[in-house]
Design a protein that fits this description.
Belongs to the acyl-CoA dehydrogenase family. Keywords: FAD, Flavoprotein. It comes from Apiospora phragmitis. It holds the Pfam family Acyl-CoA_dh_1. With about 600 residues, the chain is an alpha+beta fold. The chain folds into two domains: about 1-365 and about 400-445, Butyryl-CoA Dehydrogenase, subunit A, domain 2; about 450-575, no CATH class. Helices cover about 50% and strands about 15% of the residues. The chain contains 20 helices and 15 strands. The protein has helices at about 5-10, 15-25, 50-60, 75-90, 95-115, 120-135, 280-315, 330-365, 375, 385-415, 420, 430-440, 450-460, 465-480, 485-500, 505, 510-530, 535-550, 565-575, 585-590; strands spanning about 30, 45, 145, 165, 175, 180-185, 185-195, 205-210, 215-220, 220-230, 235-240, 245-250, 260-275, 315-320, 325. The longest helix has about 35 residues, at about 280-315.
Length: about 600
């Protein structure tokens, strides 16, 4: 396995950006009229670019999904996996999207196999799918779809019109893959999925109604058809789509290389996953992972945008009045802007990887682990009560960070002037415009900001489990804040307001609640980091975050600080503590 440093270098290589450009310029399309040369009905073919396929195969090889299910890292597995994914996101041309659903499907099937519900045949089917999902071999690896959205309901899956009927096929006539001896499922599924990302996936997890209510199903995308003519020479038997017809591909503002489609299902064969009638509860396992990974995508885009801006800042020369010329890193206002953006990014990174750590604790709760370092132990929840905090962190993380990354990425474009606005396909490593339009979807799919805000409120105000959730959140904030009164007082005020207000009356403030909790958690994590890392840069970022988010009364406008000191401080925030002031003359140095 490549080290993370090598991966960080590889994702910036020209051949990677050549693949991204190919995927952006040669968009997916549907080929075929629905019949072959012999007049037989056949599935229309989804055509993908060579660049997309190359990047997807690279994703398998690097294990951007598989690593989450490999041994060796224990409770830190998700942190390491998602840090590697973060490096990859901005170079992936959105092949990371089906891999996020692949990750979620693998976790769902892993949990199913750990229970006693599956029959021996179902175990064989689920285990086969799980092995494909967790393979690093591009020839065996599978991605997964996640089909929930329909025209009638959008995010409201209770309005699902897709119907699943239990009607087993005769033995011997229901093979998905004769080479592996995997049978097709006994459920026949028919309906219409209005927005299905990753239409090129190998399998899907979808929702459909049964007599007992909304249920979750696993279905392969292809099935064996022994009567289908494969070539003009008469070879018999090949694969066809498993009761799926691609009605059309979606024309989107961004994420254009990603084949998102409208799908007609007619007799798609699948297997029930989980308990019949409890589809929402079953598929929530996938949503936890795909929401966290959507956030990883946003942070990966923003991290790349800031990296581009930092590099630009070092070389861009601008006028400074009276014939003087300076580079942007000597421009006091420009560096103030970039340092503010960097602190916002840093806070969201703290929240992102804290949440990833909690996810790893939950998934490895039954394994003995070595005690974490003291700084980490301070923010580690009790193992027996990890799930409630994760249930809170997931909607907070996904809604807050994906939303905040959009204006911050726009600010990255703006900071480069006209160069930032260009679609730099010839110099793909500079293309912030592509990252911006792709990032705009991230706070929409897997739950919009309002949907997740209401979800959070529902968790905290639930008549049975709401008290336990509030206690779990209180513990998280206490651990992170370490007794910092300016944080705890703000949290106590918010908690008292939530406890005194019924859910219906609090609905219009759900976004405000989520934002407040996100920033309280980040403030606590900043304080925890500042205690563990007493270097000047960390202390400065913590101080300024608390000030900007009004945890402390001080204002930047009231700070009486020497301009050279402020500039140096901002340069250190943006470029790191080991940053050295470059040697060329600047306006400031000429006045010293």
């Amino acid at each position: 396995m490549l080290t993370d440093q090598m991966l960080g270098e590889e994702v910036l290589q020209p051949h990677i950006f050549d693949c991204v450009t190919d995927a952006e310029k040669n968009l997916p399309y549907i080929r075929g009229s629905g019949k072959n040369a012999f007049g037989q009905p056949v599935s229309s073919e989804l055509v993908l670019s060579a660049g997309w396929k190359t990047l997807q195969n690279l994703g398998f090889t690097k294990g951007f999904s598989a690593q989450g299910y490999e041994d060796g890292l224990g409770q830190y597995t998700r942190m390491v996996q998602y840090m590697r994914c973060l490096l990859w996101e901005a170079s992936s041309a959105m092949t990371s999207c089906p891999m996020a659903m692949q990750d979620g499907a693998a976790r769902l099937l892993q949990l199913q196999l750990a229970g006693d519900r599956p029959s021996p045949v179902e175990r064989k089917v689920f285990q086969n799918a799980l092995e494909h999902l967790n393979s690093r071999d591009p020839k065996r690896g599978w991605t997964s779809g996640q089909w929930m959205t329909e025209r009638t309901g959008g995010s409201d899956v209770s309005q699902t019109e897709t119907i699943a009927t239990y009607s087993p096929l005769p033995i011997g006539e229901a093979l998905c893959d004769p080479a592996e001896g995997i049978p097709l499922g006994p459920w026949s599924i028919s309906g219409f999925k209005w927005f299905a990302s990753a239409a090129d996936s190998n399998m899907t997890i979808l929702l459909a109604k049964t007599p007992k209510g909304l249920s979750a199903f696993y279905a392969p995308l292809r099935r064996f058809n022994p009567t289908l003519v494969r070539t003009a020479l008469g070879d018999q038997g090949t694969a066809e789509l498993n009761g799926v017809t691609i009605s059309r591909l979606k024309n989107k503002m961004g994420t254009k290389p990603l084949p998102s489609a409208e799908l007609v299902l007619d007799g798609m064969r699948g297997w029930l996953v989980g308990e019949e009638g409890r589809g929402i509860q079953t598929i929530s396992t996938i949503l936890t992972i795909t929401r966290v990974r959507t956030n990883i995508g946003a942070m990966g885009f923003l991290g790349r945008g800031l990296a581009i801006v930092r590099a630009f800042t070092k070389v861009r020369v601008v006028g400074a009045g009276k014939g003087a010329r300076i580079r942007l890193f000597d421009n006091a206002l420009h560096m103030q802007t970039l340092s503010d953006m960097t602190i916002e990014y840093h806070g969201m990174m703290l929240l992102t990887f804290y949440s990833s750590y909690v996810m790893g604790l939950e998934e490895h709760a039954d394994q003995s682990q070595s005690p974490p370092p003291a700084a980490v132990a301070r923010i580690t929840p009790q193992r027996e009560s990890v799930t409630p905090p994760l249930r809170i962190l997931t909607p907070v993380l996904k809604a807050y960070c994906t939303k905040q990354c959009i204006p911050l990425l726009y600010a990255c474009m703006e900071s480069m002037g006209g160069v930032g606005y260009l679609e730099n396909s010839e110099t793909g490593y500079l293309n912030i415009a592509r990252l911006f339009r792709d990032a705009c979807v991230l706070n929409i799919w897997e739950g919009t900001t309002d949907v997740l805000s209401v979800d959070l409120l529902r968790v905290l105000k639930h008549p049975q489990s709401g008290t336990a959730s509030m206690v779990a959140l209180d513990a998280l904030i206490n651990q992170a804040a370490g007794g910092e009164d300016v944080i705890m007082s703000k949290w106590r005020e918010l908690r008292q307001l939530m406890e005194a207000t019924v859910q219906a009356d609090f609905l219009s403030q759900a976004r405000d609640v989520l934002w407040a909790i996100a920033e309280i958690l980040q403030a606590g994590l900043f304080c925890a980091e500042a205690e563990a890392c007493p270097d000047q840069r960390t202390q400065e970022m913590c101080r300024r975050y608390l000030s900007k988010k009004r945890f402390k009364g001080e204002s930047r406008m009231s700070e009486a600080r020497d301009m050279r000191t402020v500039l140096r401080s901002n340069q250190e925030v943006v470029f790191g503590s080991d940053f050295e002031v470059p040697s060329p003359h600047s306006m400031l140095s000429s006045k010293m």
